[in-house]
């Protein structure tokens, strides 16, 4: 009998990592199904109905198996090494964010003391991965898509970071768990409702800017079908493309989960007596609701032009976030 | 024991990643491959910062270097080269002539590293962000403000320089 | 061809794997839409709320790299024929083609005097399902997809015998 | 040989490689990459010494300043390279031999 005691931490981490990867894949799969259902119902259709009986719930499984056994094309004129590397980078960038998401008080990969900052930092990998994919494909649509995407993600990182600083300032810590703990006890304690209206503005700015961070409509210019075929993944087929897709939905989950954590009270119930329902359910529920709102917006709003996109970021979101930050700082100082 | 072994394995992986990709940066003929290899060097250094219990610095390294500077560099390559020429080759010059002083300097550095007597202390592993923040806003307040001014000046200067001139476009 | 195809003898494992693969392939047919003429309007109508091809898991993709089948809907002129063929070649295996409407089937009204029209898209790429009509109604296109399903369900990844 | 020595060696190698990059390469942006390597090695050295021999955070503070300066330097340098490319239509720094724009 081997003594398991010293390896317990290791085993727990490995199990957690495997669990997170599984969760990400399952979430991404069923998010595609949900997206098609939401799109269908918004457009007065039904969406997938036939595959697997009840409301076509097996549709994502069929899609996934099909993509796995599809031919994997690497264009002859592409830069093969970078072409193969890019999907992994994007996927790692998305997966790394999951490490600090607090599903519950003790269900977290690692409660880093720089949690929020860490998430903003690892997202940079996605930008590089996208640039790599766009360039290595040797295709002008990929290139344009990648350039647009990188410009957009870098610009919108600033309002995202500035609005995330507001709850960080109010909590006095960047650790995810401590930020959530400061919001315990009812929805009136959530940071989105404290220091009205500043934190509400911060939440709105964060949510809109995060839509641009993950290239979702109305900021989905990098993938604009009508002008750029499919943006930076035009040349990707089969399993490599599936990795981009997985990463996109993983990113949606990460940004929504951060919004739920720092603004909407993380794993706490909106009313204290509802705390008997376990934390992870609240956390995933809040996140899933925000993901749903992202889909809702995608199928409701038209796409912005490139210059409008940059205008919104630099001339509207940025000044507002700065003013917001100053005012909340003043509030924190005055309150002592 | 096994944890220690794993930590050492990760450490050596980071060392090899950093040095190996830095070699690619310097010797690869394709400039974009160099730029993308720089990504791994920067990530490796960020990982080494974690081993030095500099967590804030590691995240800053990822954010500023990878998210900012490296993206700028790649954009720079795209903008100053024929974008659709996949190889974007580059010739190097005086490689052997340059090798002499560089190897000499490297030799001196390694000699010093080997011969010096370091007075090592037992390193402390603790979160540094809070103390670093306090330090930057008390002891180092003036340099911090100067750095902010420098960033602002660089921002304005870069925009002024990179902007197309009036005669370049018609509107 | 993907890596698993044509490498194994037919046996019980392969046939059950076949069933799974054929199920997934036939249930998730993503077309690259090649709207060339008036048939394209009917194709769009098939995707819209009344006929809703997404019910069957048919989900249009903008790029050939991610598509499984191609709906050639409309008149294929000689000039467009090159592009049709190139986009067909860019699709990853396994791939299928649906020729929608008389023009794509046989040249349609241009079959005799249309010097500029390809007399049927099957002259340049292999076609799996022909849908007659000028243009065919959306129901006909959906029926074409169901026929294509039947065809896919007879595929196998085993070695071809004989 | 401890981790301390290995890391110092890594920093030294980065410095040497950066120097070589600056000296041999022609494309302006390659030179910039060499400069980044050198800056990285310097920052790494600061952090190593502050962690292993001093035990305070001053080295880390210095590294923060190095990162700030690297960001400013990269932005300005790229703006200048862009201007050079626009006026001289070359990106090789050896060709940019005149100050007149």
Verbal overview:
The complex is a heterotetramer of chains A (336), B (171), C (162) and D (101). Chain A has 336 residues and is an all-alpha fold. Chain A is built from twelve helices and no strands. Chain A has two domains: 1-69; 79-335, no CATH class. Chain A has helices at 8-42, 59-68, 80-97, 115-122, 124-136, 140-171, 176-181, 198-213, 225-228, 238-262, 279-298, 306-335. The model of chain A has no long low-confidence stretch (mean pLDDT 84). With 171 residues, chain B is an all-alpha fold. The radius of gyration of chain B is 21 Å and the shape is globular. The N and C termini of chain B lie far apart (70 Å). The model of chain B has no long low-confidence stretch (mean pLDDT 82). With 162 residues, chain C is an alpha/beta fold. The two termini of chain C are 20 Å apart. Chain D is mainly α. Chain D has one domain: Helix Hairpins (Orthogonal Bundle), CATH 1.10.287. Helices cover 79% and strands 0% of the residues of chain D. Chain D has helices spanning 3-24, 28-54, 58-88. At the B-D interface, helix 1, helix 2, helix 3, helix 4 and helix 5 of B face helix 1, helix 2 and helix 3 of D.
Q: Please work out how many helical segments of chain C DSSP would assign.
A: 5
Give the averaged pLDDT of chain C, no decimals.
84
Rough shape of chain C? Answer: globular
Spatial order of the strands in the main sheet of chain C?
A: 1-2-3-4
- Count of helices of chain B? 6
**What share of residues are in beta strands of chain C?**
5-15%
**Low-confidence runs of chain C:** none
- Terminus-to-terminus distance of chain B: 70 Å
Cα gyration radius of chain C (Å)? 16 Å
Gap between N and C termini of chain C: 20 Å
Helix % of chain B is over 70%
Which keywords apply here?
heterotetramer, C: 162 residues, alpha/beta, 4 strands, D: 101 residues, mainly alpha, Helix Hairpins
Give a topology summary:
The complex is a heterotetramer of chains A (336), B (171), C (162) and D (101).
Chain A: H1 8-42, H2 59-68, H3 80-97, H4 115-122, H5 124-136, H6 140-171, H7 176-181, H8 198-213, H9 225-228, H10 238-262, H11 279-298, H12 306-335
Chain B: H1 2-27, H2 31-51, H3 55-79, H4 95-115, H5 129-137, H6 141-162
Helix pairs in contact in B: 1-2, 2-3
Chain C: H1 12-27, E1 31-35, H2 39-47, E2 69-73, H3 78-90, E3 96-100, H4 101-106, E4 129-131, H5 138-152
Parallel strand pairs in C: 1-2, 2-3, 3-4
Short description:
Chain A has 336 residues and is mainly alpha-helical. Chain A has helices at residues 8-42, 59-68, 80-97, 115-122, 124-136, 140-171, 176-181, 198-213, 225-228, 238-262, 279-298, 306-335.
